[in-house]
Amino acid sequence: MTSSDLTLRGVFARTKGEGRAALIPYVTAGHPHLNDLPQLISALNDAGADIIEIGIPFSDPLADGPVLQHAATQALNNGTKLRDILAQTKEISQSSVPIVYLTYMNPVYHFGVRAFIRAAAQSGVKGLIIPDLPWLESQEVFHDCEAEGISLIPLVAPTSTDAHIASLEIATGFIYGVSLTGVTGVRQDIDSGVESMVARIKRFITQPVAIGFGISTPEHARRIGAVADGVIVGSALVRIIDDAGDEAPQAARAFVASLREALNP
Ligand SMILES: O=P(O)(O)OC[C@@H](O)[C@@H](O)c1c[nH]c2ccccc12
């Protein structure tokens, strides 16, 4: 069995067996150059990523901070199209750990909701994160995803109610715990409430919980990995890719390997 055959749940079962949290790096498709995605995904695989999040660039990414906004703008200026990302993903997914898309609702509507979910499934995508789709309004998308074998991944924020958290037990992939009230971005410190938020989520549901937002260093990853089932790193990686120029794949590989090292038991 190759890693591409693993389900999201299978990944978490394996990492749990290894006594560590799963590492989930994020990159924006079409950034820094239109066709960089295959090389970057290959670097993240080499570095020991367990799941990879690919961001679909969008012009108005309301949950994103400056690093990811800039990456999305650059990707759109490069002429990145959803259809091309899907085609690239299809090529990549067979030799990669499971891939999850991060997209806002607008590009999905534009493509057609059903058509998009089907195309994503055919490209080998295992999960979808849609930050501006409220869980309460996601029934149709949820069912279309289930029908295509894709997990819709719900978000939990520090402000989420216990009732909201309890309603997520039907999710089939993992729960995305947002570490803070704010936008994505590189940060100095991890919010002091993260540990108790993970504990609160686990009181209500059995799903694996991955934490993202602001995890920027191996030290942060180690701390989050001690309480959560997965660690998601976006802006810090994208900033390194930005700064590295032609050396982006090597720089990405080295950084993600250092995060992975920090998660080893
Ligand atoms: O960039 P950060 O702070 O490391 O956070 C993860 C994040 O990049 C990724 O999961 C993500 C990118 N855009 C988002 C929008 C909403 C929720 C999550 C995301």
UniProtKB/TrEMBL annotation:
It comes from the Bacteria. Its EC number is 4.2.1.20. Pfam families: Trp_syntA. PROSITE patterns: TRP_SYNTHASE_ALPHA. CDD domains: Tryptophan_synthase_alpha. The active site is at 53 (proton acceptor), 64 (proton acceptor). Keywords: Amino-acid biosynthesis, Aromatic amino acid biosynthesis, Lyase, Tryptophan biosynthesis. It catalyses: (1S,2R)-1-C-(indol-3-yl)glycerol 3-phosphate + L-serine = D-glyceraldehyde 3-phosphate + L-tryptophan + H2O. InterPro entries: Aldolase_TIM, RibuloseP-bd_barrel, Trp_synthase_alpha_AS, Trp_synthase_suA. Transmembrane segments: none annotated. Pathway: Amino-acid biosynthesis; L-tryptophan biosynthesis; L-tryptophan from chorismate: step 5/5. PANTHER family: TRYPTOPHAN SYNTHASE ALPHA CHAIN, CHLOROPLASTIC, TRYPTOPHAN SYNTHASE, ALPHA CHAIN. Belongs to the TrpA family. Tetramer of two alpha and two beta chains. HAMAP family: Trp_synth_alpha (MF_00131). The alpha subunit is responsible for the aldol cleavage of indoleglycerol phosphate to indole and glyceraldehyde 3-phosphate. NCBIfam families: trpA (TIGR00262). This is Tryptophan synthase alpha chain. It comes from Sulfobacillus thermotolerans.
